[in-house]
């Protein structure tokens, strides 16, 4: 049976002005040529109808070549389109190319991963695909984070083999694998899969429990704490929503926090700025890492985050806000653990970068991101960067925050408490002593 790939296109795309491709052969050829032609061909393919199965290998080969070229660009939108197309082609070469690309070392953008998961949902009843993916996630040579993404693909499929694999943890399973199993189980919330989510609420890793709780809360509408025994009891004796809306209209029972400061709004976007100057060596950086580990594990999937580590300069985990996907969390925490303390303290460059994401200051992005809060942890006064004068720094914070984008500060050294308190006040945020 034919699948949705590069069949004839009958009309020009009004929004992009793409020229139509009169046949599948020309579309396939374009997918291997220039970037502009690839984008036009991909959009054309996405709008087309089924073609005969004897064309799929040719189209799969062209898509794989185009994706290999696009991998070396800074254009995730192009890679997203090509990945979505690969999910539609019923050919072993297409699946091979897709799985090879779904490795965080090759593809670090979670928006591209989401395109693959969403594309697989269109083939939810494909038994052969389910069996192939089950084999792929069982390969012990696959790196753990790549296996985690493959597990998430399984969640879009209805086949019993997919459900069985998602319910059974692999020996030596890492927490990102368990967390993506939870994400996958929540995509098709059958009674059997919901039982699997309840079981994952007993997992030792907070990041796994958080994902399982989110999936259960979405599927049931119950506003219950993320506790294994509570949910087991709820499935035996379901809560009654009609009792004055007790479970239907409460505030969320869980709000993530950083050093006790809440991040309450659903879908929040936050930046964590962390001092990694030489004076943070030892207990300071160890405690700072532990707090940030817990907070990142705890962030719901609807939240986005960024991390900037500052010393004489600034290093960032990703040059943008990333979604709180378990694999991105794992990558961020590995990056955090690999940071060394060194050199001096350049607060202003970290603040420039953080507020620049929201379109503010000399590093303003265009287009700007939606940002809800900035957190800054430091143990010493600024002594490097374009602004080291404390009064000027406080005024810059006041201008950046502008009454609607608070700066919260965490003091890891008493000498900097007065400055950080003044910055939090000017930024409309809170100050916290890191050692309380």
How is this structure best summarized?
The protein has 436 residues and is of the alpha/beta class. It is built from 18 helices and 11 strands. It is 47% helix and 9% strand.
Task: Explain how this protein is built.
With 436 residues, the protein is α/β, with parallel strands linked by helices. Among the domains are: 3-123, no CATH class; 257-433, Rossmann fold, CATH 3.40.50.410. The protein is built from 18 helices and eleven strands. It has helices at 24-30, 35-46, 56-70, 76-88, 92-101, 110-121, 127-137, 144-154, 160-167, 175-187, 191-200, 206-220, 228-236, 283-298, 326-337, 347-356, 390-401, 417-426; strands at residues 3-4, 50-51, 257-258, 261-262, 269-275, 304-310, 314-316, 322-323, 373-378, 407-411, 431-433. The strands form three sheets. Strands 5, 6, 7, 8, 9, 10 and 11 form a seven-stranded mixed sheet that branches. Helix 10 packs parallel to helix 12 (206-220). The termini are far apart.
* Mean pLDDT figure: 86
The largest β sheet comes out as: 7 strands, mixed
**What is the radius of gyration?**
24 Å
Question: In percent, how much strand structure appears in the residues?
Answer: 5-15%
Note the total helix count.
18
Number of DSSP strands?
A: 11
Order of helices and strands: EHHEHHHHHHHHHHHEEEHEEEHHEHEHE
Net shape: globular
Please give the alpha-carbon distance between the first and last residues: 65 Å
Task: Kindly list the characteristics that best describe this protein.
436 residues; alpha/beta; Rossmann fold; seven-stranded mixed β-sheet; two-stranded antiparallel ribbon; 18 helices; globular
